Amino acid sequence: FVPIVLKEFIDILGQGPTEKDAAMSKLGLYTILMFISWLMSRITIFTMCYKTAHVIADLKKDGLAYMIRHNHRFFSSMFLGALVKRIDRYANHYDAFADRVIFDIIPTAIQFAAVAIVLWFADPLLSLLVIGWIVLIFTANYVFSMWALPYNSGRARQDSKTSGVLADIIANNPTVATHASYRKEEERYAREVDLQSRWMRFSWMCSASFDAFQGMSVRAIEIGMLALGAYLYFRKEITLGTIVMASTYVRVISDQSWAF
């Protein structure tokens, strides 16, 4: 609703000084809506902080309760560090999942739908431009995610293996000292770290490449919206306020798209 009020405010300003009272009224409404938006975001964040801490604690307790009931063979065949990391990762994944749902998926779905509907009533061409860009971004994100999934899984496995090797070396330090196998253990850990580094570098390069594509698409939609808005304005089909509203909506959804 905030960009709609901003559009009306700018349209009133374009009518001249005679509409001063109406402009001040819209400015007051704009201020109230901005404050309500800030208040709702703070309430959401404080609620998430309270609930997430309790859920993570419960997940860690459940993870330990499940793990300690395994037999001796399970523990003898696993690295200590890997087991510790599994419990922590199991619990901490809830935090990432909750953040993704509350701050990314739900707001994105609401904003994209609202923007498409509002712009459709302003001018269908503006709405179709936004919808086409949304379809492009979501399709590209899905294709890239499916392609990168095996590599992300491999990186996670290597992270666990590297931590496990380090924990094993530290835990067996007396044995290492007894056999004077410092160089051997150093080389063993170095191999795992180097492999982990290659996984990380490849993963980061892939993400950076896709970010470059998405960044270019964001700039393209912003320029395209201004160009289309100017075209429709000169045809007297929309007002300057509509251009500002459409550009604001594009900025909102383009910022939200980086969450994926």
Strand and helix map with partners:
Blueprint: H1 2-13, H2 20-67, H3 72-76, H4 80-122, H5 124-171, H6 173-179, H7 182-234, H8 240-257
Helix pairs in contact: 1-2, 1-8, 2-4, 4-5, 4-8, 5-7, 7-8
Short synopsis of the structure:
By secondary structure, the protein is mainly α.
Kindly list the characteristics that best describe this protein:
0% strand; elongated; 8 helices; 260 residues; mainly alpha
Can you give a write-up of this model?
- The protein is mostly helical and about 260 residues long.
- Helices cover about 90% and strands about 0% of the residues.
- It has eight helices and no strands.
- α1 runs antiparallel to α8, α2 runs antiparallel to α4 and α5 runs antiparallel to α7.
Helix content: over 70%
How much of the sequence is in beta strands? under 5%
H and E string: HHHHHHHH
Q: Please report the distance between the alpha carbons of the first and last residues.
A: 24 Å
- So what's the overall shape? elongated
Question: What Rg, in angstroms, do the CA atoms define?
Answer: 27 Å
- Mean pLDDT across all residues, rounded? 81
Number of strands: 0
Q: Which structural class should the secondary elements be placed in? A: mainly alpha
* Major β-sheet profile: none
* Low-confidence residue ranges: none
Number of helices: 8
